[in-house]
Structures are given as structure tokens and as C-alpha cells.
Specification:
Radius of gyration: 16 Å
Number of domains: 1
Shape: elongated
CATH class: Mainly Alpha
Helix content: over 70%
Order of helices and strands: HHHHHH
CATH architecture: Up-down Bundle
Number of helices: 6
């Protein structure tokens, strides 16, 4: 079956996703010539930094938690496959991608995709964390949804 993550490893993946997001948006803020885009990217970088701190707090609680499953390893196998397809789970990938970005529109489209992927991953993570941390992850998902809306709105403003 291959490598199967534990709950704590999934939270660590969440931390890596947020670090990549922070780096991605920080570099984009410095690269952009558009003041509004710079401000939005700076805001998003700060938001990702807050999410890192939240996941650090969750990490201790999930150490021994096991989600309900139909067979042993079922859920962690699903999350392993999901994580393997998500580029922001790879260390320093946010910096690498941001440096290759050539326009604000491209950056925003990438940001939209990354926010969508984060939402999907965090929705899946809800089954791997203890009940008392569920509300925290739901709040993170809601914030990622707000970021997604912000990026969509900004994109539509650029296109007009």
C-alpha cells in the first residue's frame, strides 16, 4: 500500500502547504508592479502565516488520533494520494513557482488553484483530527474560501 500518513503527518503537510502559500504570496507581492495586487498578496502572505501558527497548535492533539475507517489505513491512504497530487506539499515549491510567474493575472490564477487545492485537502483533513480541533480547521477552510473569493474578485477586476 506504500507510505500512509498519520494524523500528525497530515497536519505537518498542512503546515508545509501554508509555508509554501506564505512564500508564494510574499514573492508575488515583491514582484508585482500593481499596488493593489501587492497589497492583496501581502495580506494573503500574512494570513498564511497565521494558519501556520494554528496548525502548530493542532499538531500535539492529533498525535494518537485515529479516524473511523472501513478497513485499517483506508483514510490515510486516501489523504496520501491527495497530498501527492498537491504541488504545495513539496518544500520550497511556493518560492519556485512564484519566481517563474510572469504576470499578475497568472499569479492570481495560480493562487486560485492553490486555494482550491487547500480547501479540498483541509476538508479531507477534518476526518483525521480530533473532534475538538474540527472547528479550528473549519475556520481555516472558511478563511481559504474568503481568500479564493478575494482572488476571483481581483481577477475579474483585472480582466475588465
Amino acid at each position: 500500500m506504500g507510505n500512509i500518513f498519520t494524523g500528525s503527518e497530515l497536519v505537518e503537510i498542512g503546515i508545509e502547504i501554508e509555508k509554501n502559500g506564505r512564500d508564494f504570496y510574499s514573492i508575488l507581492s515583491n514582484q508585482s508592479k500593481n499596488q493593489q495586487a501587492q497589497g492583496m498578496f501581502q495580506f494573503l502572505a500574512k494570513e498564511e502565516e497565521k494558519h501556520i501558527a494554528v496548525f502548530q497548535g493542532i499538531l500535539d492533539a492529533v498525535e494518537k488520533y485515529q479516524p473511523p475507517e472501513s478497513y485499517p489505513g483506508e483514510y490515510f491512504a486516501y489523504m496520501t494520494n491527495l497530498a501527492s497530487e498537491y504541488v504545495f506539499t513539496q518544500k520550497d515549491k511556493g518560492k519556485e513557482i512564484a519566481k517563474k510567474t510572469t504576470s499578475d493575472l497568472e499569479a492570481i490564477e495560480l493562487g486560485i488553484n492553490f486555494e482550491k487545492d487547500s480547501i479540498i485537502f483541509y476538508e479531507g483533513m477534518k476526518k483525521v483530527i480530533p473532534q475538538f480541533d474540527l472547528k479550528i480547521v473549519e475556520q481555516l477552510v472558511a478563511q481559504e474560501e474568503q481568500h479564493l473569493k478575494m482572488l476571483f474578485d481581483f481577477k475579474h477586476g483585472l480582466i475588465k
